[in-house]
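User: Show me an example of a complex going from sequences to C-alpha cells.

Assistant: Sure. Here are the input components:
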Amino acid sequence: MARLPLPARRRSWPVRHPGDLAMHGIAGLAAAGTILVLVLLTVQVFRQARPAISRFGAAFVWSTDWNPVTNAFGARDLIWGTAVTSLAAVLAAVPLAVAAALFLTELAPARAAAPIRTLVELLAAIPSVVLGLWGILVLGPVLAQHVEPWLGSTLGFIPLFSGAPSPAGLLPACVILTIMVVPIVAAISREVFLTVPADLKDGAYALGATRWEVVRGVVLPHSAAGLTAAVILGLGRALGEAIAVTQVIGGTAAFHASLFGPADTLASRIASQYQGAVSDIQIASIAFLAAILLVFSLVANVGAGLVVGRLQRRRLGVR
Amino acid sequence: MTGREASPLSGGARLRRRRAASAGAELLSLLAAFVAVAVLVVVVVSIFLKGAGALSVHLFTRTPVPFGETGGGIEQALIGTAELVALATSIALPAGVLVAVYAHEFAPAGVARLVRLCLNVLAGVPTIVVGILVFTLMVKGSGQSGWAGALALSIIMVPLVARGSEEVLAVVPATLREASLALGATRARTVLRVVLPTAVGGIVTATILAVARVAGETAPLLFTSSIAATTVNTDPQRPLASVALSIFADSESPDPHAHQEAWAAAFVLLVFVLAISIGARLVASRARGGRLR
Amino acid sequence: MKTRSETSLTPARDAAPSEGLLSQPAALDVLFEQRSPAEAEPLEPVLEARAVTVRYGAAVAVSDVSLDVHRNRVTAFIGPSGCGKTTLLRTFNRMNDLVPGAVVSGRVAYHGVDVNGAGVDPIEVRRRIGMVFQRPNPFPKSVFDNVAFGLRLHGLKDDLSGRVEEALRRAALWDEVKDRLGKNALGLSGGQQQRLCIARALAVEPDLLLMDEPASALDPISTTRIEDLLRELRSQVTIVIVTHNMQQAARVADLTAFFSVEPTGGDEHERGGVLIEYGPTEQLFTRPADRRTEDYVTGRFG
C-alpha cells in the first residue's frame, strides 16, 4: 500500500520495532491503569457498601438515623446538607466567576489581565484544610457575631435566615465552598470565552453594539455549552469537598431550613467518621455514603468531561 | 436613494441608555474580579498574620506535646508529608507521563478520547472517595501505612500530571518528530530522545503544580495514613504523619494551644504551596516567553 | 465589461502624469459618461481622510494618507499585504478603537464631521458606516436573527420582519433563504453566509459600506455573485472595498487607490503603508502615473 512518506499527524503508527512495541505496551498499560482505577473505584466502593445496601436498601436515602449504638444508618439529612451547601455555593460563585472571567477576557488590558487571572486561580491552590481552619476560627465567629444576627433581624421571616446564630453551621460551609468554586468556574469560563472567534465579536461591534451587547448577543450564546460544563464541574467540586466542610459545618445531622445551625454533608460525614468507625455495618454505611457521592460525581464529570474534552481537543488541535 | 444628511454622530437618548447599561455591566464585572482577588488577599493575609505570630523554631524541630502543654512542634508531620509527597510523585510522574505519551503519540483517536475523558473524570472524583478506594484495597486487614497514603495521593496526581504533559506534547512541533523519524529513528527513540526532552519543561511545571496540590490534601489520608505516631517515623510500612492532618486534628481540638500550632502549620503549608505554585507559573511563562499563565 | 477589464490590465506605455492623489472631477466625469451615462452625477465626498497615520506601538501601519470617498461610487483599495489597506478601512468606522495599542492621528471626516472628534460616539459612527469582513462571520443564530441583530440594537423594531426581508432582498439572498429564516445561519454556504453578512450590515441602513476583502474566502462562483451585488448596490450606498485581487478591483470599482509599503520618516528601517496613487480605476490600470503602480498592476511587483 502506498503511504505518504512522513505524514504530519499520525494517530496510530504501525508497530514494527521491538522498542516501539515495548513503549507502546508500557504507555498503553499506564493508560489502561487510569481506566482501571475508575472501574476499581466504582466496584470497590460499592462492594464495601454492600452490607449496608442489602440491609437498608433504598430506605438509606430517606432515613434520618445515624446511630452507631443501634446500628441504624441513613443519609437523608446528609443529602440535604450536601444539596443546600453545594447549590448555595454554586449560585453564589457562578455569577461572580463568570463576571470575573468576562472582565479578564473582554475588558481588562492584557497587562492587567495576566496577574489578576493568576491571583484568582491561586485561590484554588489554598489547601482545603487551611481554608477550613480559617473558616472555623476567623470566618465562623465573624458570621455568628455580625452577619447572622443582621440577616436574622432583616430577613428572619424567611426560614433560611431564622434561628440562633452559630459559628459553625451551613452558612460558613456555603461561604467556604463558594470560595473554592469561584476559581474553578472562573478558569473554565475564561477558557470558554477565549474560544469565541474575534471575527464574531468584530461583526457585532461593526453593527454598533456596545460591549455589553456584544457579550450578551454573541459571547454568552456562543459559550453556553462550555459554561454549563463549568457550572457542573464547580458543583462537583462543592459536592465532594470533605475536609473544609467538616471543619466549619458543625457535624450534626439535622434537617432544618436555617442556614445558621450546624449540619453535615455526605462528604463531611465520611471524613468525620475516620477514627470512629467500629462495626462492619458502620463502615459499610460510610462506603454507602461514598457510593452516593461517587455516583453524583461520575454523572457530573462524565457530562462535563464530554464538553470540556471537546474544548481541549479544539485547543490541542487534535480530533 | 438619497444619502442620509449629515447629522450629529453623538447618538440620542436611546444610545445613552445603552451606553449606561454597558457601563453598568462593565462595572459589575470589574467588581467581580476585584472581589475574587480581595477574597484571596483577605484569606492569605489573615492566615499569614495568625500564622506568623504563632511561628517558632520549635515547630520544625520538635514533635507534639500532650494536651494543654506548649512548645510542641510538627517535625514528624513535616517529614511525613515530604515522604508521602515524594513517594506519590515517584509513582505519579512516570505513570502520568506515560499516559500522556500514550494518548498523544500512540493511541487511535477514539481511544485517546476515552483516556482523556477518564483523566477528566478521575480529576473530578472527590478525594475522600479515592481514600476509601485505597482503604478497601490496602488498609482493610493490613492496616494503615505510608504506602497507602502515597498511593491515594498518586491517584490524585496522575490526571494532573497527564493532562499537563499532554498540553506540552501537543506543542512539540510535528517537524521535530518527522526529522527524527526521517533519520531512521524508531518511534520509541523519537519519543525518548526528541519529544520528551523538548517537553520536559512543561512536564516539570505540571508535576510541581501537582505536588503543590497534594501537599495540602487531607481527605485521601484520613482512611489511609492518619493514625500516625507522634514521634518521627520514616518507615512507609507504618502510617506517616502529615502537616495537613495535623492542621485538621488541631483545628478540631478544643485546646487553644493546638489552634496556635494549627495556624503556624497552616502558615508553613500555605507559604510552600503558594511559593511553588507561583514559581511553576513563572517558569512556565518564561519558557513560553510570554505572560503569566 | 469583461473585455474592458481585460484590456485595462494592459498598461499603456504613454502614461500621462497624474495631477494629484485626490479627486479629479474633470477626468472622472469623462470616465463615468463612458461607463454609464445615467450615473454621471457629480462627485460628492461622503468621507474625507486627511493625513491619516495609524501606529501599532512603534510600528507604522498607515502613513499620512489623504483621500476622499465619493457618494454612490465603489472605491477599491489595492496593494500588497501589509500596506495598511485594512487598517485604513478600520479607521473609517473606528474599529481600530478595539485594537489595543492602535493610535490614529489625522482627520477622518464623515459628512464633514470628524469621526474622532469630541462628542462623537463610535457606536453611532459604526451604525452609519457598515462593515463586511474578510471571512463570513454570521452569528450562530437563525438567519432572521442575524439580520435583526442590528435592528434590535438600534431600536428599529417596527415592522421588523419587513425590514429583514428588505435587507435580504437588497443582498440578493431573499429567494434562497425565505423558507429557512428560522434555521441556523451556519448551515448556509460560504457565499450565502457572506451575503447574509452584507444583508446584516445593510439592515441598519448605513450610507457607507466598508468591505474588507469580502470575497477572498469564497469560491469563484460566489465571488461573481458578490461582485454583481456590489454593482447593484452602488446606486444605493457608497462602497469602499479592500481587495488583493486586481481583476476584482477592475471589475467593480469606479475609483481605485493603490497603496504600498514604503519607508516612512527619516529612519531607513521604518516602513509603513502609504497611498501611491488614487484615481479613476481605468486610468489607474491603463495609464498609471507612478512607476510603482505600474509595476504592481502589471504583476512585476513581488
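The lines above are the inputs; the final block is the predicted structure for all three components together. Strands of chain A lie at 66-67, 72-73.
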